[in-house]
């Protein structure tokens, strides 16, 4: 029904790599191709190799290296006036900015990439840029606008039978449904995404869909089943070197353990996730893991004033970020503790 998953960000001589290639292997191949492109004095091949390098570094959590690589890709593409390659580089830069919690910059880079892709007739780069904007808006808390973009992408992906776009759009909508409290719809969308990803060979998409299914199962009280789904997703993350996805998987495991009232294990798991996020300089994940850790410590009997002080400090740190939805979650935790104390 739907095509096999491909990785359109692997271009030129790297086009033959599987979407499921481990990122250490992707990086090695792309660095070798970059050297060849420099020797051949091929500006387009150089831009394409550096795009792949940027994406491999980003997935591996090496964000400074990823930043240098996408900018180098853009410069190489601009030097030969290749607007399609420039669009892909901007997509990579916008995705990296989102991962770093720089959401305004992410929307700016992705929007610029969308415009260049449209001008160049690069439909895949255009779709990826729109999907990136939708995800950024969802993370920022602009749910209505994000839903409209995800629904647009879903309709287009169904027409074309594009596996990865379908999975991405379904997972975005499922997350919005979950945040709105519609667990039945969230389950259906995550389930469909998992099925399409598995059928299309998109292990990245499958790992994220399994994480979503685990979240819904846990919210329904099915904690053991949720942990099993997370273990399956973790195997994929480790096999593919998906550093950020692995950290979010770990954070979700903490959520499941917390909901099951296994607070000691939840605290240890949240602390692991927090360290993972900090090692890859991902502020949103680190903030969410810290929030879970503080709530777990409170349940374990830690003096309330110390926890409240750290929650206020976390909220104030988020003021300098653009993570409004994450900040609201911290504020809700502060309010809940105040109500209990009253």
Strand tally, please? 0
Q: Any idea what the CATH superfamily of the domain at 11-128 is called?
A: Tetratricopeptide repeat domain
Per DSSP, the total helix count is 16
Categorize the overall geometry.
Answer: globular
In the CATH hierarchy, what is the architecture of the domain at 11-128 at level 2? Alpha Horseshoe
Poorly predicted sequence stretches spanning 5 or more consecutive residues: none
- Rounded to the nearest angstrom, the distance between the terminal CA atoms is 57 Å
Could you say what the CATH topology of the domain at 11-128 is called? Serine Threonine Protein Phosphatase 5, Tetratricopeptide repeat
Helix content: over 70%
CATH secondary-structure class of the domain at 11-128: Mainly Alpha
Helix/sheet category? mainly alpha
Rg calculated over all Cα atoms: 20 Å
Order of helices and strands: HHHHHHHHHHHHHHHH
Compute the average pLDDT: 92
Strand content: under 5%
Largest sheet: none
Q: How is this structure best described in words?
A:
- With 342 residues, the chain is an all-alpha fold.
- The protein has a domain at 11-128: Tetratricopeptide repeat domain (Serine Threonine Protein Phosphatase 5, Tetratricopeptide repeat), CATH 1.25.40.10.
- 81% of the residues lie in helices and 0% in strands.
- The chain has 16 helices and no strands.
- The chain has helices at 23-40, 43-59, 63-79, 83-99, 103-120, 123-140, 143-160, 163-179, 183-200, 203-219, 223-240, 243-259, 263-279, 283-299, 304-319, 324-341.
- Helix 2 packs antiparallel against helix 3 (63-79), helix 2 (43-59) runs parallel beside helix 4 and helix 9 packs antiparallel against helix 10 (203-219).
- The mean pLDDT is 92.
- InterPro entries: TPR-like_helical_dom_sf (IPR011990).
- This is Tetratricopeptide (TPR) repeat protein.
């Amino acid at each position: 029904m739907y095509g096999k998953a491909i990785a359109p960000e692997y271009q030129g001589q790297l086009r033959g790599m599987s979407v499921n290639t481990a990122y250490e292997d992707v990086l090695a191949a792309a660095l070798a191709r970059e050297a060849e492109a420099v020797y051949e004095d091929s500006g387009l091949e150089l831009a394409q190799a550096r795009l792949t390098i940027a994406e491999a570094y980003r997935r591996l959590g090496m964000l400074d290296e990823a930043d240098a690589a996408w900018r180098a890709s853009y410069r190489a593409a601009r030097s030969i006036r290749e607007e399609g390659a420039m669009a892909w580089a901007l997509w990579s830069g916008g995705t990296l900015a989102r991962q770093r919690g720089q959401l305004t910059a992410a929307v700016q880079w992705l929007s610029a990439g969308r415009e260049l892709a449209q001008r160049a007739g690069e439909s895949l780069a255009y779709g990826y840029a729109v999907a990136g904007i939708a995800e950024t808006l969802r993370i920022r808390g602009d749910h209505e606008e994000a839903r409209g973009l995800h629904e647009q992408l879903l309709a287009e992906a169904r027409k074309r039978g594009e596996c990865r776009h379908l999975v991405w759009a379904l997972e975005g909508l499922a997350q919005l449904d979950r945040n709105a409290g519609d667990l039945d719809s969230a389950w259906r969308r995550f389930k469909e995404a998992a099925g399409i990803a598995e059928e299309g060979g998109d292990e990245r998409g499958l790992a994220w869909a399994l994480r979503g299914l685990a979240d819904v199962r846990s919210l329904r009280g099915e904690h053991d089943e949720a942990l099993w789904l997370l273990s399956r997703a973790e195997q994929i993350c480790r096999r593919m070197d998906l550093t950020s996805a692995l950290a979010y998987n770990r954070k979700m495991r903490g959520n499941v353990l917390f909901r099951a009232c296994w607070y000691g294990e939840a605290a240890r798991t949240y602390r692991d996730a927090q360290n993972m996020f900090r090692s890859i300089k991902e502020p949103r994940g680190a903030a969410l893991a810290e929030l879970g850790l503080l709530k777990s410590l409170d349940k374990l009997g830690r003096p309330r004033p110390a926890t409240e002080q750290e929650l206020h400090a976390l909220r104030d740190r988020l003021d300098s970020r653009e993570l409004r939805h994450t900040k609201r979650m911290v504020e809700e935790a502060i309010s809940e503790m105040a109500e209990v104390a009253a």
